[in-house]
Amino acid sequence: MCLTGVDYFSTLGYQPGIAFLAANYLAPFATLILVLVTVFCALPAYFIVAKESPHGQGSISMLGNLLPGWLGKAVVLLLLGFAATAFIITITLSAADATAHLIENPLIPAWVHHHDRIGVTLILLTILGGVFLIGFREAIGVSFIIVALYLGLNAVVLVRCFDLIMHNPTYWQDWQQNLMSMPSTHGDPWLILSTSLLLFPKLALGLSGFETGVAVMPLVKGDPTDTPENPAGRIRNTKFLLSSAALIMCVYLVASSIVTTLMIKAVDFKEGGSANGRALAYLAHMHLGEAFGTVYDISSIAILWFAGASAIAGLLSLVPRYLPRFGMAPEWAAATRPLVVFFTAVAFLVTFIFKADVDAQAGAYATGVLVLITSAAVAGTLTVWDRKPRLRYGYLVIALIFIYTTVINCVERPEGVHIALAFIATIFFASVVSRALRSVELRVHKIDLDPLAKQFIDAAAKTGSIRILAHRPGGTDYAEKEAESREIHSITREEGDFIFLEVKLGDASDFIEDCLEISGHEIDGFHILRCESPAIPNAIAAFLLHLRDKTGVIPHAYFGWTEGNPIGYIFKYIFLGEGETAPVCREILRELDSEPSRRPKIHVG
Q1: CB 535 within 8 A of CB 577
Q2: Least packed by Cβ within 10 Å: which of 27, 198, 506, 536?
Q3: Cβ of 473: how many Cβ atoms within 10 Å?
Q4: 125: Cα separation from own chain's centroid
């Protein structure tokens, strides 16, 4: 829970200030709406995600699996763009807020107070990236200490502030007076409720952390009876983890919103104000002394810094899990250090764009967070729609709430969409280029032949020649195809028989074939091998290499020429898995074996 809480609980550093800037003196009511949405909407949605993706894949994987082919891949890429937005802005926003806690501390030398926030934020980002380059696995263990210290200090601040409020009625009286004089509500209870409901999208940052909670599922201990297919204990304990974190956070959110709204002047919340981005720290210094306030600042800086670390860890988990497997990222994208350098450089750029301003980045952060939560709600709705008809409309309402919230947030704070679209465009462009560059990889990890297929191969190998004849499934009959091929390639019956190979095109949006299963069939005396693959040339090349390595005989493969525009076939192959089969197959073999005498032979006629 503390590992999840590094991201989730750290929002206490800036959420009360963002709530006041968005809702003014309605902040406690708006925060209460946020709490209700957390408990009755976000939690149920992520309970479904935990059940359906117990190995940490999250809602992105769920939607990718629910939607077929390229549509599913496109949705995954789209959500990855928003996830990248959420995680990158988590890194930059947390570093910026850590900077605010650092330079506003009165015990810090005066020259630091006037130092450029951007420069200090960049230094923190550089240190964060450097830690990951050295190695961060061991350091994650201190998350418990950081979260326990941070929540403990916040509890002290809140108890002290509530004690002051109880013994000083003027706090309540001033708040009530300000609330009644607000021109948007005039103290009307229904207007207060409706306005608070409408303000919810601006407070959506308080929902961040749920996706991280699901991402750490592989670390959650289950029952001894758990199996990889049904980790019931892990799912149950993850639901308990999410519930515990949410309930703890709900108490802190409501309490912090009340004390900061009642005890801090409105001018201090604004940009340049002493409470901007550090409302609870401001109260800690004011009412518990500079020494305690400094300890609080240190704990805040630590948890905000670790929130950025958890975001990098999330990115390092997401990118290698999806893009390389789709063929949509270069091989270095599976390596930690190059990705850390890349993400750090992007964080630098975002920091410059937003000038290390916490409030300015809130919209972009909320956009990424809301899209991820909305994807979880939609995935949950699609999952229960047929399985649990009595729950379908409840989950539909949850999905609609988050869809509405996301749309409103995007309209009111379009900078989040702009950042997300930049990430999405970059991911899509890089994906197409990478898919093209990696098209001649083998892409098949294992080949499995059934007994009859092995029998065909063993019989051919004993003759000293293996002749594979590529045949389109459902094409011309076998006798006609064999007669045509013997004439074109000048092969008599005495020189050997053909083994027909039929590769059925599978889901062309897939890239990696974990296991190519080949079955043998005997029809009218002809030997036929059949399999299914997302890329026909790659499957044939992998099969030919398998034959060479298992039998010691160099196989010969025979193809017919394709007719049509070669440029069209290039795009057809990259995106649909078929096209100029013979030359692509030969190029794959050439890339894999530099010795021509050892390569399987390709004949085209």
Answers
A1: yes
A2: 198
A3: 11
A4: 21
pLDDT of 245-289, one tens digit each? 889 999 999 999 999 999 998 888 887 788 887 889 889 989 998
Dist. CA 584–CA 580, nearest whole Å: 6
* Dihedral pair phi/psi, residue 579, rounded to 5°: 165, -120
| Residues above pLDDT 90, as percent of the chain | 13
Cβ distance 501 to 540 under 8 Å?
yes
User: What are the backbone dihedrals phi and psi of residue 408, each rounded to the nearest 5 degrees, phi first?
Assistant: -60, -45
Q: How far apart are CA 371 and CA 366, in angstroms?
A: 8
Instruction: Please give the mean pLDDT across all residues of the chain.
Output: 81
| pLDDT (mean) for 202-211 | 73
Q: What is the pLDDT of residues 109-141, one digit of tens each?
A: 655 555 577 888 888 888 877 776 765 555 566
- Which residue(s) pair with 501 in the sheet? 470, 529
CA nearest neighbour of 418 among 491, 490, 353: 353
CA distance 35 to 47: 17
Residue 85 and residue 93 in contact, taking contact as beta carbons nearer than 8 Å: no
347 φ, ψ (degrees, to nearest 5):
-65, -40
User: Tens of pLDDT along 49-89?
Assistant: 888 888 767 777 777 777 766 677 777 778 877 777 778 88
Nearest-angstrom CA–CA distance, 86 and 404: 18
Which tokens is 208 given? 């961040």
The strand ranges marked E within 484-590 are 498-505, 516-523, 526-533, 556-559
d(CA 507, CA 145): 47
- List the 556-559 sheet strands across, edge first: 447-449, 516-523, 526-533, 498-505, 467-470, 556-559, 601-604
